[in-house]
Structure formats: structure tokens, C-alpha cells
Amino acid sequence: MSETTKDGPQRISAIDQLRGYAIFGMLVVNAKGLFGLSHEQISHHRDFFTYADTIAPLFLFVVGMGMRLSWIRRSAHSDAGSARKAMIKRYGTLVLIAFAIYAGWLWDALMDIGLAGLLAVWVIDKKPQVRVLAAFVLVGLYQLIVMYSFYGDWIMRVDGIPAIDSHLIVRLIPLHGELFDVRINGGPLGPLSWCMMLLFGTLAYDLLAARDEKKFIAGCVGWGLGLCALGYALHVPWGETKPEWAISAYYMTAPFPLWATGLCFLQLLAFYVVCDKFGFSIPTFAAVGMNPLFIYILQSLLLDVLEGFDMPAMSLPVGIVGFLLFYGCFAALALWMQRRRIYIKL
Fold this sequence. Notes:
α4 crosses α9 and α9 packs parallel to α11. This protein has 346 residues and is mainly alpha-helical. It starts with 12 loop residues before the first helix and ends in a 7-residue tail after the last helix.
């Protein structure tokens, strides 16, 4: 996202830092149990929004920025059909990798990125208004499915409902057992909501590419506060008209993607001010952000192995030191790859 092209902005330090920060946050959330770090803010909850819930949306948001840049590059050197085919191949590959590494826990970050990318690829070349409309339509469609079908009772953990396999439409789906065994992140239809962060990430890239700082800041503030306000408005009950809808990644109903996407814009703006205006950067974040998907896949595989061992109980200080050493291993690898200009892309 942050490399120089004639079609995009000059290298933006904030994007490198933001991408690395997203990977750092994922490592904190995924590895917390290994090091005895159990604060509720680094765990996902069914009923309220936590720090942990900011990380995956931010990663999809940054993926969307890169997706838009990739489209501009590809379409400049080939026809739209070839560029779209290459993107379909890329995000389809992510889906296959997710199937391979998420055994028994299918609906996690890579799967949502892959499926959201496959949805977004059909509008990636459209005007910003069309991409924004597509994001709202997909979230609205998911909300309607949750409200007016058996899928909603299943994803919302309603007590006493029949097993989802009892529904004929589910039994007709190949691999329905694997697809519906776990209901996290909205389950198999969750990418309809996750796609909002990705599509708004493409809009954020357009704001940067315009090279108009005032417009970029106004866009980040406007979209950030506006989407957060809309998400909160849909969260609270409307008297007898609408009950409370949780802002929860477990369910992925409308308040979550709206609130989370608004926070993505505000985080992007914060990193832009800190990194590009004041020149501050966090060591290792830029290097980690150069190979984000590779680092993420590697940590997923490593954590799967480590979870098979009985780890000793750790005090909070020891756990923090242990995690920093854990992160340091990935940061060292990322720095080594950066120095040798090794960038692993799908």
C-alpha cells in the first residue's frame, strides 16, 4: 500500500505503521492465553466491544487500501478482466489457506479476508459512491438474514432452537458440518458484514491518493464519527420499535461493522498525524507490515503447535516479558526479510 507509484501517493509512513500495528494487535489477542494475559479488553466478548475487536476490522481496512492500489496498478498494465481474474485468484487462495489452517475454527481472519475480497472484487473498479453503497447493501442484507431467518437464532445463540443441521437448506450445502460447526465472526455469512471494512478501506486509499491533506483529514473525521454514530444508533433500543443490537464480532450484526469501520478511519488519521506529521514511528512495525499475511499465517501455525504443550502459569510481568520475546522473534524475522527485500505475496 505504501510504495510509490505514479497513480498513488508518495510513501506514507502511517500505512506501514498501521499495518504492522494490526499484526502486533493480532499477536496480542491470539497469544494472550499462552502467556497468561487475560484482561477482558484483549478478549472478544459477546455483549460488548473491546480493544480486541478493533484489530481484525483494522486489518481488513488496510487490506482494502492495498486492494485498491493493486487494482490501479494491475489495470494500468492489463485489461479489467485480467486484473479481476488475478484478484479472484489471490483471494481464492486465501480462502484455501484458511481451510487448511483453521481446522475446527473456520471463520477467522484469513477466511473473512478471502471471502470479503471475493465479494469486493466486483466493485473495486467502481466509483467511491458505488463501493460505499455496496458496503451498506451487504451489511443490510446480512442484517435482514439474521432478523428474518433461522440463521439469526443460530448466530445469536438463542436457547432452545433446533440444531441448524435440521434445516433442509443447510443439509443441501456441501460440507455443511464443517461450515456450521462453529459460529464466530458471523459464521459463513459473516463476510457480508466484514466486507464493509474492506470496501471502506478502498475509499480511504482514494482519500490518500487525492494528495489533498485537508480533504483526507475531513474524510477520516467525517466517516469516522459518522459511522460510529450510526453504529451506536443501531445498537441502542428504539423504544418498542427495535430491541438492543449488540456491538459484537460474534454476531456481526449492523452495529459492529459500522462502529468498527468508523474506528478504522479514526485510527488511520491518528497514525497519519503521529507518523507523518510528527515523524514518530514505532520500531519494527513497518518491517512487520511489509509481510503481514506471511507473519499472520506463521504465527497461526506456531500457536497451533504451542497449544499442544502445557505452559507454566505466569505472573503478569513475566507474561508481558514472554509475549514481548514472542513478538520479538517475528519482528526479527520481518527485519531480516526487509533488509533482503523478501516480500511474500499471494
